[in-house]
Structure formats: C-alpha cells, structure tokens
Amino acid sequence: MRVAVCLKQVPDDTGRLSALDDGSGLQGADCTWMLSPFDRYAVEEGLRLRAALGGECVAVHVGPDHAPSVLTEALALGVDKAVHVWDDAFPALDPLATARVLAAALRLTGPFDMILAGHRGVGEDHGQMPGLLAELLDWPQVTLAVGLTVEGESARVVREVEDGREEWRVTLPAVISAQKGLNEPRQKSLKGVLEAKRKPVLRLALKDLGTSLEDLAPQLRREHLVASPRRGAIRRIAGDPDAQARELVRLLREAGKLR
Amino acid sequence: MSGGGILGVLSCRAGRLPRAALEVLGAAQQLRSTASSSIAAVLVGAEVSPVIDTLAAHGVDSVYLFEDDALARCTTEVHVRAVAAVVAEIRPACVLLPDSAYGRDVASRLSARLGTGLATGCVSFGATASGEPLAERTVFGGRFVERVSWAGLPRLATVKLGIFGVPHAEPGRRATLQRREVARDARANVLSVEHSEGSGSARPDIEEARVVVAAGRGFGSAEKLHLIEELADALGAAVGASRAVVDLGWLEHQHQVGQTGRSVAPDLYIACGISGAIQHLAGISSAGTIVAINRDPEAPIFGVADYGIVGEIEEILPPLAAALRERPVGRPEAGE
Q1: Are residues B83 and B169 in the same domain?
Q2: Which helix (H) or strand (E) holds B86?
Q3: What is the pTM (predicted TM-score) of this model?
Q4: Which domain holds residue A206?
Q5: Sign of CA dihedral B278, A26, A116, A72
Q6: What does the pLDDT look like over A138-191, one tens digit per residue?
Q7: Chain A 23-52, CB below 8 Å of chain B: which residues?
Q8: Given Cys at both, which of A198, B230, B259, B260 links B279, Cβ 3.0 to 4.6 Å?
Q9: A201 — contact with chain B (CB < 8 Å)?
Q10: pLDDT tens digits for B91-133?
Q11: Which of B307, B324, B329, B336 to probe by mutation at the A interface, max A CB count within 10 Å?
Q12: Domain of B229, in residue numbers
C-alpha cells in the first residue's frame, strides 16, 4: 500500500497577521507556521495504514519554504519520505492551480493507492483540495472521513455530515479527506525528530512537473482583503442572576432577536 | 435558457428541501444583476420531484431533475457528471451550491472538471465598478474578509448557511421541468446513512439554526449539560460546544464550533462558560448578536460579545430559560 498525504501550512497564530494597507493581501512576517490541524489526522491515518498493510507513506507539500517545515514535522511523525514542490516562478496559486501542481507531483512520484488530506485548511479555508485532486486524477473521493477500513481493493469509509453519519464503499485508488475523530494523532518523538534528518526529501520545480505557467493562471482572484469590521462595544448586564436573566431577555426582545 | 443565468445545485432528502437549498435561492436573488437573468435548479437523487412547486414558488424558472431510486446510492462523481451536463446545456454565468458537505464535494470536483474558479463559503455577492461580479468570504478564522472575482465562466460559489435567508415565496408560480438521466459510476457507493433526525434529538443543526446556545468548559461536568439543553429548548435553539467539551467527550463533534469544528452564522449566539479562545472565535465570526455568560470577567469572549453577563452558569441559566419561556408583556396568547 502506497499512501500519499498532502499537507498544508497555516498560520500558527492568526493574531499576528495583518492586512496590507493597499488591500492586496496579508502581512505575515511575524507569523509562525504550522501543519494544518486536519492534516494531522491524515498523517496519522497514513502511518496506521502503513503499519497495518506495509508499503510506504509519502508526505507532499506545495508551498514556499517556511520554518518549521510541515514536511520536517511529517517526517518526524514517521512518514518515509517527503516531496516538496515549489518554484519562485509560480504565479499566486489559487486552489485549482495548487491542485494542478499537486496532481502533477503525485503522478510523478506515484503510483499511489490512496491520497489522504485534511478535509480543509484553517487559513484561506477554501476546502477544495480533496475534490479538485480527485477530479484531476479521475479518482473517486470520500470526504470528512471519521472511520476508514481497507478491505483488499476497496475501502469502507464512515463520514461525518451535517446531521449524521454515512458509510461509503470506495474502490482504490481514491482520495480520502480526514475529519477530526478519524484517529488520535500521535506526537512526534525525539527519535522521530533525529531520524527525520536522514530521510529523503525530493524537491520538484516547474520544469519537473510538465505543467505550463498558463495552466497555473489563477481562475479565482483576490481583489481585496481587509480586516473584519470590529464589533460594537459590549453591554454588560449587572445585578443578581435573576435580574441579569430578565434584563438580557428584555434587551434581546427589544433588539428583535427573540421570536 | 439562452445562457447567462444562475444555476443552483440543490440537494433534497425524502422529498424535502433542506433550508440550505432555499438559502442558495436567496443568494441567487442577491447575485443576479438584472431582474431578467433566470434562475435554474438541478437536483440529483431519489424522490426529488415533490419539491418542484416549492422551487418554483421561491423564484426558480426551470428545474432539471435526475431522478432515480438508484441514485440514492451514488456519490459525488455521478452528481458532478449530472451537473456538468446541465452546465453544458444551459451555459449559466454562475453556479451556486450550499456550503455543506454535499455542496463542497460537488463544487470542488466541478471546478476541476470545468477549469473555472470556485469561491467557497461566500457571505455576500456584489460587483466591481465595471460590473464584474464579486464574492465576499471570510478567511483566517474570520479575522479578514476577502473579495474575489472569477477569470472565467461559469463562476462557481458555495453559499455559507445562515447568511442569505430564504426568498419570499409566491405560491402558484410555475417553473418548467426537464427530466434528464445520468450514467452511473460504480467506484463509490453509499452503503448506509444514519441521520440524527428522529433519533431523539428534536433540536436543529448548528449550521441551520437561527439561534445557537453553546457550552464550554465552564460547565465543569457533563452532568450539568442539561442546563444548556433546557436553555436551547426554551429558545428552539441548536446546542453548540467548545472544543474542550467535545474533547472531554461530553458532546459529539458535530456540535463543535470553531477552527477544528464548524463555522456557524446564527442570528443569535449565546456562549455559556466559553472563554473564547481565538480558535473558538473563528467559528462565530459571521454570527449576528453574541451573548457571553462567563464567571471570568476577563475572558476573551467578552471582547467580541454584544451583551455580557459575569456569573456562574448554574445560577444564570435556569432563570434565563424561565424568563425566555414567559410570554412577552402585551403579546396575545394565540397567533404567535
């Protein structure tokens, strides 16, 4: 079983981000970066599948170098090798362009039986990568997995949807996206950190991918980005609990918030 | 239809439209630049035809149905193929889907299939000075709002729930009906579906509810959660939870609001015993009015709340539920 896990880097503390004055984007020089929380469930699942079925677990990341690298983190957690895809010639990558880069890198380093990813990042929060990748590879997909069992050439996946759970069967290869609850992600060990330094990292750039800059032209453009408007001042309600409760209900009724 | 209209991709279950589907139609009303652009809807599944009249009443001009009992077991790939066929036929300028598990699944594959951009979780639509459509979405935990535009057609967008409202219904309005068929894909199948509705919980889902009351670590123990449930029932509200409450196993993950949970946009959000970590606030950035009830006057939740009460959960919640159950003064008993 060869599993690829796609990783995203997100700000560790969004409080350190600020919008550029011209509205063109974010100023994040002070920001530290981390592995997107949902990707931890994907890495853990990849490691569990390798332990149960043998094979290899490969971490793939598209993005510029940030320290600490999400790939170093994944290697320390136990993945066998890392693929880092970046080229300074890339235009600003929108989700579709990122997926095209990822798909090219996965074809180049495959074949894989399964691609795992977090069901969404927590930064720009597009939440599109699993579906985009599956369509580009022409594979089936199951998103929001909270349970996964491989049975020969297929997998049974329990997924969490808005108001319940569904169980799907999918033939492999497939793209599976991880939801919180899929497993309990491990912490990296000192041994893992030391071993990570000796594990291979394959670097891929535009010329390796067979993708043209034209294919990467953004289909979705950011026109403007500003800080969210601040909320109005708080109204604090004093008194004994009974008076506080009655006053809150009165204020909410007055504001038309209760029906 | 001659192109240029709006296509809504809707889901329905057992002959009923979820609120999310009607909100997509609400967003379609906001998006359409001229009253002449038509609104089409596509539905794929079993038992979808009972909703045609509801769609027509809510502003849909033409309905494309892929209806077959066997489609209930089919997954995203088949739905995408069906929607892509309608897109090729009517060439809409925009395709709108709900920002739900279903909507994101279909929309993201559709984006790769059509090669056009997708804006997910849209909270508003507008236009540039030159009349190009724009969408607004919140990013980085709700701390920023970005405006995006599309390079090509059709423009794809998923619509955040709880923002746009349901359009005014005009009973008796008619829509044209087109029935279509789609080839199956056997690579993925639905084996079973277990929905929480009917399993004892009469409360709404946190993303669909107009009011959400949420419990945090301040409850101290799972035994006290009946207090949040009683408050929810006094309001007809959904029950949300902070990450701590879910990680402690007091409530299921579906209830979790925040960065590793769900993002909600109710009209009223009442945070009880929730300190308001930045990861929690990420999930309520689109909420209307926020009420915070917490014992710690310095809790960060008070920094984003509209109304604040400093106090103990077990002392405030029972009189609050009681006061909510009282009929407002001067309001007649009937006709509420």
Answers
A1: yes
A2: helix B76-90
A3: 0.92
A4: 2-216
A5: negative
A6: 999 999 999 999 999 999 999 999 878 999 999 999 999 999 999 999 999 999
A7: 26, 37-38
A8: B259
A9: no
A10: 999 999 999 999 999 999 999 999 999 999 999 999 888 888 9
A11: B307
A12: 211-325
